[in-house]
Design a protein that fits this description.
By secondary structure, the chain is α+β, with helices and mostly antiparallel strands. The protein has 15 helices and 14 strands. Strands 10-11-12-13-14 form a five-stranded mixed beta sheet. Strands 1-8-9-7 form a four-stranded mixed beta sheet. Helix 14 links the parallel strand 13 and strand 14. Helix 10 crosses helix 11 and helix 10 crosses helix 12.
Length: 412
């Protein structure tokens, strides 16, 4: 069979379709379970991150695809805290997928291997593991507290010794909770604001998934790699492996299995040297009419090498870079227009002044700055309205700042 050959533009459109951008579901009056299920069927998981300079990462990932949706409706579906006497079980759960993530609860059996490894102190942050080994009585006490009184958050538990530095001020209760969570002994019952509440799995996870036997590791890795291939549409082995942060050797074995089964097929992409694969049901749209600001933790650009290969766009998050050494800014969002990443903006929601701050606006080479600025102004206006902010303020940094400032003034 002759290997399919694609241009880079075709590869981009396949990826954008797989990632829920084609078509974008803008203008929905309300988001309900059907819309979230449909998007999770494409993305598989949403990364959660605590940085709140603009908004939480998973809210921004949804905004990029849905536009100005009702966050309260999403919170009810994803984060509602169910008490121990509630008969309501979760449709989605939080666990370590691609970093901390929210996923459909049907994936629970496919991640039990990760929980079992954590119980053996494998794949867990070293300091968490050491603390758990040295303080088993703390883990037992916290587990009993949750069994007796759950769902509970960190502040509901007795504080056991403050810590600082690399642990962001975590106290011992928080460290113990995170280890128990990693092992699957407790699960996220929901959130209030961004405070996570923990409870026993049997109170949160539907019994069909909780009691299902853990998939053996080879089967689980095959399932997760297949889902990654579906959510990518097209990608390399490293792209697929990164989606669930799978071990290299196991991911490569799963890749071979998927090739044998015809779930993926080899494909060549113009300018790509690494072996590349296309999902069996991937779709190639005729054109792309996307418009979206992408959070640093959006699944389209998680794997930075993939973003560079697909879009010729080198992107690195600079949150942890000293201010004087940052090239583009603290919380920088690439701007997707059509099928290209054409600009990047350093943004902040200034809630005290009710202003969406644009500290810097940088355009890529060979773009039509007027058209990009006009489209960006419209997207910023939509974002400000969604966030309940009254105005947009554009700073002077970046070659696109002047054009964007004019477009924002004309729009307002």
């Amino acid at each position: 069979m002759t290997e399919q050959s694609l241009s880079k533009a075709q590869a981009r459109r396949i990826a954008l379709k797989a990632q829920g951008f084609l078509p974008q579901r803008r203008g929905l009056k309300r988001i309900d379970r059907r819309h979230l299920d449909a998007l999770f069927d494409q993305l598989t998981l949403l990364q959660i991150d605590s940085v709140n300079v603009l908004d939480r990462a998973h809210y921004l990932t949804l905004f990029a695809r849905f536009g100005a949706y009702d966050k309260a409706a999403v919170d009810r579906l994803l984060h509602d805290v169910s008490g121990p006497k509630s008969a309501r079980k979760k449709d989605y759960f939080e666990y370590w997928g691609h970093e901390a993530s929210v996923m459909p609860v049907s994936l629970y059996p496919a991640l039990k291997w990760r929980m079992e490894r954590a119980c053996q102190h494998q794949g867990v942050w070293g300091k968490l593991s050491r603390y758990a080994k040295e303080n088993p009585q703390v883990l037992e006490t916290i587990l009993k507290d949750i069994a007796d009184r759950g769902p509970l958050c960190v502040s509901d538990l007795e504080k056991r010794g403050g810590r600082s530095g690399a642990w962001w001020g975590w106290n011992d209760s928080k460290i113990a909770l995170e280890f128990l969570f990693w092992c699957g002994h407790i699960v996220a019952a929901g959130r209030q604001g961004f405070t996570r509440y923990y409870d026993l799995p049997e109170r949160v996870i539907p019994s069909d998934y909780l009691e299902a036997p853990a998939l053996d590791e080879a089967t689980a890795h095959r399932q997760l790699m297949a889902l990654a291939a579906k959510s990518h549409g097209i990608g390399t082995e490293k792209c697929l492996r990164d989606y669930f942060r799978l071990p290299t050797a196991e991911a490569r074995k799963a890749l071979d299995t998927l090739l044998e089964e015809g779930i993926i097929e080899p494909v060549s992409v113009q300018g790509w040297d690494a072996p590349t694969y296309i999902y069996k049901d991937a779709q190639l749209p005729a054109r792309a009419t996307c418009r979206a600001l992408l959070a640093p933790f959006d699944s389209l650009i998680w794997y930075r090498d993939r973003a560079e290969a697909l879009f010729d766009f080198r992107y690195r998050i600079e949150i942890y870079v000293p201010k004087e050494k940052r090239q583009f800014g603290y919380y920088v969002l690439p701007f997707l227009m059509g099928d290209r990443l054409v600009a990047r903006l350093d943004l902040k929601a200034n809630r005290q002044e009710s202003v969406l701050e644009v500290f810097a606006a940088h355009g890529e080479a060979r773009i039509d700055q007027g058209k990009v600025a006009e489209a960006l102004a419209q997207e910023l206006a939509l974002m400000a309205q969604w966030m309940g902010l009254d105005s947009i303020r554009v700073g002077e940094r970046g070659d696109l700042a002047g054009s964007l400032s004019v477009s924002v003034r004309q729009l307002i």
